């Protein structure tokens, strides 16, 4: 994580070993996207949601293409997106991250790690890890921003499984968070819905880069 340096990744200030290994990150006064989106009584305005989506995409692109070595985060989720005081998103928690050598197309891992609701089908079935597994998780994150729903609700229903029939039938109004009403930019909303749909494709080949 010490090699990671981007406005949309968490800033590492230091570390400690007394009483266990821990990292010290720059303070995020608003907390995580998960707490703001799912645990706050206040409505999250569309401009903030869109800013978080764009910033997170930039941070993820940096990890995949802009670092000295390709980094697959493996745990992109709302709880791992910290927010600065001006709502700039910062990807954090690199505990599951893997370096992917340039000559390798993917990694295969045997240990099951990650967060249900965000895990790509190829990882669940074959343990395959590459950029597209992060892209799938990012698509779930976009769906959370669009719908206001959790990746897994309290009945353990998957947001992706709930949203896919609506995406397929283009039932946009049923996807959008009711708290937003009509207070959003239609062009931005359509772009985000399209991006989410492409990111959560069953086949990794069909997902966005």
UniProtKB/TrEMBL annotation:
One of its GO terms (cellular component) is cytoplasm. The keyword Kinase applies. SUPFAM superfamilies: Protein kinase-like (PK-like). PROSITE patterns: PROTEIN_KINASE_DOM, PROTEIN_KINASE_ST. It is an enzyme of class 2 (transferase). Residues 1-209 form the Protein kinase domain. Its main location: cytoplasm. It holds the Pfam family PK_Tyr_Ser-Thr. It catalyses: L-seryl-[protein] + ATP = O-phospho-L-seryl-[protein] + ADP + H(+); L-threonyl-[protein] + ATP = O-phospho-L-threonyl-[protein] + ADP + H(+). One of its GO terms (molecular function) is protein serine/threonine kinase activity. Its EC number is 2.7.11.1. It is found in: Cytoplasm. Keywords: ATP-binding, Cytoplasm, Kinase, Nucleotide-binding, Phosphoprotein, Receptor, Serine/threonine-protein kinase, Transferase. PANTHER family: OS08G0249100 PROTEIN, PROTEIN KINASE FAMILY PROTEIN. Interacts with ARAC5 and ARAC10. This is non-specific serine/threonine protein kinase. It comes from Sesamum latifolium.
